[in-house]
Amino acid sequence: MNFKLEQEKRVSEIEEILRRYMPKEEGYYKTVTEAMNYSMMAGGKRIRPMLMLETFRLFGGRDNDILHPFMAAIEMIHTYSLVHDDLPAMDNDEFRRGRKTTHIAFGEAMAILAGDGLLTLAFETVARAYEHVNKSLDDSLTVYERIMKSYKILAMKAGINGMIGGQVIDIESEGKSINKDMLDTMYKLKTGGLIEASMMIGAILAGATAKEVDAIENIAGDIGLAFQIRDDILDVISSDKILGKPIHSDEKNFKSTYVTIMDIEQAKYEVEKVTDRARKAYESLPYENEYLEALIIELINRKK
Amino acid sequence: MNFKLEQEKRVSEIEEILRRYMPKEEGYYKTVTEAMNYSMMAGGKRIRPMLMLETFRLFGGRDNDILHPFMAAIEMIHTYSLVHDDLPAMDNDEFRRGRKTTHIAFGEAMAILAGDGLLTLAFETVARAYEHVNKSLDDSLTVYERIMKSYKILAMKAGINGMIGGQVIDIESEGKSINKDMLDTMYKLKTGGLIEASMMIGAILAGATAKEVDAIENIAGDIGLAFQIRDDILDVISSDKILGKPIHSDEKNFKSTYVTIMDIEQAKYEVEKVTDRARKAYESLPYENEYLEALIIELINRKK
Questions:
Q1: How far is it, in rounded angstroms, from Cα B241 to Cα A5?
Q2: Which pTM was predicted?
Q3: What value of ipTM does the predicted structure carry?
Q4: B69 touching A (Cβ < 8 Å)
Q5: Å from B37 to nearest chain A CA?
C-alpha cells in the first residue's frame, strides 16, 4: 500500500462529500455562508471524517448514505471549534494553515455566527440521515437506533463533557502551571472528544457491538492524547513554515504542555507509551484495516 | 381563566423542567456550567417552551417524556443566541433582564464557550429523547420518526436558514437603511425561526398531520413577526425600567426597524394586520386551547 497515495485519494473523496453538505453562497445572508465555506474548505487533513470512514470499514459497514452526513458533521464541528478558538477573546490567532483566520477575513461578528452556523448545520445534516432509511426493511428500527445513538455521541463528545470542557480547562489554565493529570484530562476532552466521536460513530453505524464500541472509545481517546502530545512536541521542534502556523505559540500564550511539565525525550516516551496501549487494544479486535493502522501511526509520528 | 395565574403556574413548571436538563456545577470545567446556568436561569418569559407545550396540548399530545427534552432544548438555543448576541463584537450589551450579561459576569471567552455549550447541550438533550420510546409498542417507528423530524426542524430553524440567517441580516444592515421586505425576512428568521420550531415541534410530537404542521408554521411565523414589530414599538415608547434593558437601543445602534421605516401608528397597524392573519389561520384549525390563544394575544400586545 502506498500510504500517501491512498491518503490523497481519501482526502479528495471526503472533500467531495463535504462540498455536498455545505451551503450555497446566495441570498440575504450570503456572507455567513461564505465565511462557513472559507473555514471548511481551508484544507486540512480531514482526520476525523477519515477515521470515521475507516472505522466504519473496519467493522464491515456498507450504507454510505447514512455515514456521509455524519462524516460531514464531524468536520463541521471541528471547523467551528477552530473558528471560535481563533477569536481575539480566545487564542487570538491571525493565521491558520497559512491563511487568514475567519475573523480576520470576515470580521469578528461574522466569525462568531459562522461558527454557530457550522455547529448547527452539523446537527441539521445528521438529522437528515434518517431520510435515507429504507422503511420497508425489517431492520429499520435498528438503523434508526444506530442513528440516534450516533447523534447522541456526536453532541456529548462535542459538548461540555467533551471538546468544550477541554477548551474551558485550556482557557482557565492559561498562565498557570497545571499537573499531568489535568493536562491529560484536557487533551482527552479537547482533542480526544471528537476523535472518540468519529471512531465510535463509524463503529456504531457499521453495527459494532456495545463492547466493541467501548474498545474503540478507549483506542480513540489514546490516539487523541498521543496526537496532542505530539502537537506539543512539534510546537517546539518544528518551524512556522512546515507547521503552517506560528511555532512556540504555547510559550507565547503561557500554556502548560507536555514539554513544559517534562523534557522532550520524556514527552516522546509518553507518546510511545500511549500508542502502545492503543495498539494492543486495537490488535485484540478480530478485524483488520491496513489503511486505518497506517493512518493512526502517521498521526502519532507526524512532522506537521 | 385567570391568565396571569395560569402563566405563572406554567413558568414555574417549565423552570422545573429546565433545571432537570441543566448541567451540575462541578469538576474541572465548573466555570462554563456556572455561566450556562447563569444565563439560562436569568428569568425570562419562557415563551418558546410554553408555546411548544401549549401547541402540543392543542393537538392532544400526551407523552411528556419526549416533549420535555425538546422544551429544554428550545430554551437552551434561545439562551445561547442571547449570550452570543450580547458579545462586544455583536450588540455589545452589558445588561439583560436587569442583570449583567454573561460576558460581563464571566468574561468574553467563557461567554463564547457557554453559548457553544448551550447550543450543543440542546442537541444532546433531544438526542436522549429516543431513550424514552417504548420499543414494545407497535407505533415505536412512528414515534422515532416524529423525534427525528422534530430534531431536523430544531436544527433548521436555529441555523442559517432560520435564526442565524436573521442575525446575519441584522449585523450586516447596521447603519444602513433597509426596506420592509428585508426587515420582514430578518424578523421572520431571527425571531420567527425559534417560534416556528417551538410550535411545529409541539404539533409534530402530538401527532399532527403534515398539513396541520404547515398551518402552524405560518401562524408561528406571523406571531414572531408581530412580536418583533411590537419590540420595535416598545423600544421607542417604553422606559428602561419597565423593559429591563436600555430603550432607544435600536437608535443607538443605527438599526432599521418598523418605527424607522414608518411611523408608530402605521407600525401598530402592521401588528394588527399580521395578528389578524394569524388569528384566522388559527381559527380554521378544528382544535381549541384557551390558554394558548390568550398567550398569543398577550405576546402581541405586551407592555414589556
A1: 66
A2: 0.95
A3: 0.94
A4: no
A5: 13
